[in-house]
Structure formats: C-alpha cells, structure tokens
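Methods, example record. To illustrate the input and output format used throughout this study, we show the complete record for Chaperone modulator CbpM. The sequence lines were provided to the predictor; the line carrying structure tokens was produced by it.
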Amino acid sequence: MIIVKETSTTTYLQGQIVDEKVEFTLVELSRVSGASEEELTLWVSEGVFEPRGDRPQEWRFSGAALRRVRTAQRLAHDFQINPPGVALALDLLDEIDALRARVKRPRGN
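The corresponding predicted structure is encoded as:
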C-alpha cells in the first residue's frame, strides 16, 4: 500500500510491502489495517474475505487480505457503502483486474 501526502512543495510517499504468505489473526489484521474487529467480522459474513478457520479466534487472513481490507475501508468510509455493497464492489473490482490480465496476455495462449 502506498500513501501519498502532499505539502505545498513536496510530495511524500509512505508504503508497506507485505508478503502474501504472511498470515494475520483477526486482532492483528485489525491492528495493522485500522479496521475494527467488528467491521472485519461483518465483512467476512458478507463474503468480502474468506479466512482460514471456523471461528473468529481461529481465523487466519493472508497478507493479500490487508490490501483488500484497505480498499473495503475506503469504500465503506469514503463512499458510505454498506457491507453488502462493499462485497459487490470488491467482486466487480476483481473482475476488472481479471479482464485486464486477460487483455494483457499474449495472443495464442
């Protein structure tokens, strides 16, 4: 994730690189992302994330989930989209990414 901060004359970039193989617990993902455990639990119930584990205490989220959480937060907070809408928007964004990847693939494959 990259955060851009601008002042009158200077632009600062701040980011984190997270390995997709890293796993977060619910508490860790909440702490790292800034999303509340309640938000994350609600998003899981809407299908935004599919953690490994049966109960919230056992859930494990991949490193890739962090990017998805931050996108979900922006959708929910900036655009005031409800949890089912966040799930739909993320699914549509995934579809767009998949289509772009198909278009970039060389022909004949």
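Annotations derived from this record:
The helical segments are 26-33, 37-45, 64-78, 83-104.
The CA atoms of residues 94 and 100 lie 10 Å apart.
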